[in-house]
Backbone:
């Protein structure tokens, strides 16, 4: 029996199902007539059908190449888009295909020295999610506008140029792990060999090695960008690539990080998540005006008060368990009520332990509204006021259909990918996910990341956290990086930045712009010749 029960997976998988670092808020003017236009894209250099490059000997790869141009910031950039599948095989002795892995790569034209041009391998989470969210949300040359008020847009949906794309800083390769997107196991191959913590890291690592070799990128600065479960994958890959292929990295970007399931696994014998989520409860209550007046005045001072309470009085109170009685217990209950916006009697009835779903349901109960899980600034109608949970996430509902419809249109019309099989945006077919490595424990990649950072002292780590993320709380990321067991001098390689949004922080335009600025600085620092 593993200590990641199905109940917990049912909590974690939906968060990563749309998860993604995946939403981007367009300027307000773009919302004035958000439903009037069909999807549009940046200007192709030519409209001719894509042409495939020469195949490797004996290859079953299926690739389409198109040429485009776009504007990012003040730069006009011409780039090549390569979309299709690379076949991964067993080994040199057995060339039998194991799987075809779908990817979309954007490489800037005119690069004379690939050794000076970074390349970033990008993926989302789930497990079971394709890379559509990072691709059309945050990083790629196009993005899907999503309303910031939790009201879903009417189809047809728009695709607009992404002025905050990271293509001006790095080439981008978006990877769909096996069974997601258009990636599939080869005929006769058991899909279970790809569906697990270690299996997933190995297969994605094979793809990264193959792409790096095939496209001559061994001299390029290399980065990984992962989101949600993709951060767990990225941390594991940082060690695996170094050990298996002697491939070191310049940096990894972790968006809405989750490196240790113990930080989000609400269980009766695990008080840690209750402590780590409390500052996010405070941020959410602040946003919805549910805190006392003195705590509504200064957001950052209030968040710091919540951090302090969580680390000291609250964690000690939970540690005491039933031994906490009388006035001491009442003081904790009263302070929790002040910092969360929840009724004191409700907190007491729940024995000082309120999980994130219960909080999302209860905060605005008097209005029969539920707050979003990915982004708790979002509010939706509670369809089940008498139940213990709402049963849906209003911040997720607003994005799923727009991203799916727009992706199909974009792949077929702009990237010239013509396939009849479903593009698996998010799939349950990867389940059960193999966590056997963590029997009687919580899945985590702490050792892998710590070892990679210790062996590769030049590798930098960037962590992006949203204040309003009820899926992977910002305080959980702080806790995780304080418990990596790193030597003091290596902590300088870790950068944590915060955004006034949720799990998909790009739905908030100021956060999107801040993120682009922060990542530009991170890439420059990570590739600087010291």
Residues:
């Amino acid at each position: 029996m593993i200590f990641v029960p199905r109940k917990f997976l049912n909590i974690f998988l939906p968060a990563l199902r749309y998860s993604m670092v995946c939403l981007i808020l367009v300027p307000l003017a773009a919302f004035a007539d958000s439903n009037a236009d069909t999807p549009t894209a940046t200007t192709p250099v030519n409209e001719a059908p894509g042409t495939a490059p020469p195949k490797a000997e004996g290859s079953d790869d299926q690739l389409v190449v198109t040429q485009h141009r776009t504007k990012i910031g003040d730069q006009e950039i011409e780039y090549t888009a390569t979309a299709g599948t690379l076949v991964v095989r067993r080994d040199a002795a057995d060339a039998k295909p194991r799987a075809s892995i779908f990817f979309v790569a954007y490489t800037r034209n005119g690069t004379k020295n690939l050794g000076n041009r970074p390349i970033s391998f990008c993926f989302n989470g789930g497990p079971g999610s394709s890379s559509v969210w990072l691709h059309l949300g945050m990083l790629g040359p196009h993005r899907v506008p999503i309303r910031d008020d939790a009201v879903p847009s009417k189809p047809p949906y728009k695709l607009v140029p992404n002025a905050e794309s990271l293509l001006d800083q790095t080439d981008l390769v978006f990877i769909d792990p096996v069974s997601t997107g258009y990636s599939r196991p080869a005929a006769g191959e058991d899909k279970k060999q790809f569906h697990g913590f270690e299996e997933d890291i190995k297969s994605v690592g094979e793809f990264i090695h193959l792409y790096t070799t095939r496209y001559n990128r061994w001299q390029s600065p290399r980065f990984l960008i992962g989101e949600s479960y993709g951060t767990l994958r990225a941390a594991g890959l940082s060690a695996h690539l170094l050990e298996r292929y002697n491939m070191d990295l310049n940096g990894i970007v972790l968006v809405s990080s989750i490196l240790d399931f113990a930080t989000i696994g609400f269980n009766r014998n695990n008080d840690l998540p209750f402590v780590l989520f409390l500052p996010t409860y405070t941020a959410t209550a602040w946003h919805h005006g549910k805190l006392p007046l003195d705590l509504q005045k200064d957001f950052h001072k209030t968040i710091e008060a919540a951090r302090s309470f969580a680390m000291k009085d609250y964690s000690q109170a939970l540690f005491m368990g039933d031994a906490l009685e009388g006035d001491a217990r009442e003081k904790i209950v009263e302070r929790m009520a002040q910092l969360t916006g929840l009724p004191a009697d409700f907190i007491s009835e729940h024995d000082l332990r309120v999980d994130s779903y219960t909080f999302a349901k209860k905060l605005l109960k008097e209005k029969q509204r539920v707050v979003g899980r990915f982004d708790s600034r979002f509010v939706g109608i509670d369809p089940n006021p008498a139940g213990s949970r709402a049963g849906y996430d209003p911040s997720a509902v607003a994005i799923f259909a727009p991203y799916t419809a727009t992706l199909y249109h974009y792949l077929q019309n702009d990237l010239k990918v013509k396939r009849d099989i479903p593009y698996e945006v998010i799939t349950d077919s990867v389940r059960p996910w193999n966590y056997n490595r963590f029997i009687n424990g919580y899945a985590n990649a702490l050792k892998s990341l710590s070892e990679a950072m210790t062996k590769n002292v030049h590798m930098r780590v960037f962590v992006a956290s949203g204040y309003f993320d009820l899926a992977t709380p910002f305080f959980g990321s702080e806790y995780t990086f304080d418990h990596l067991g790193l030597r003091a001098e290596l902590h300088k390689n870790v950068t944590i930045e915060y955004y006034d949004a949720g799990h998909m922080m790009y739905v908030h335009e100021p956060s999107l712009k801040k993120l682009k600025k922060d990542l530009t600085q991170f890439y420059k620092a990570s590739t600087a010749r010291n």
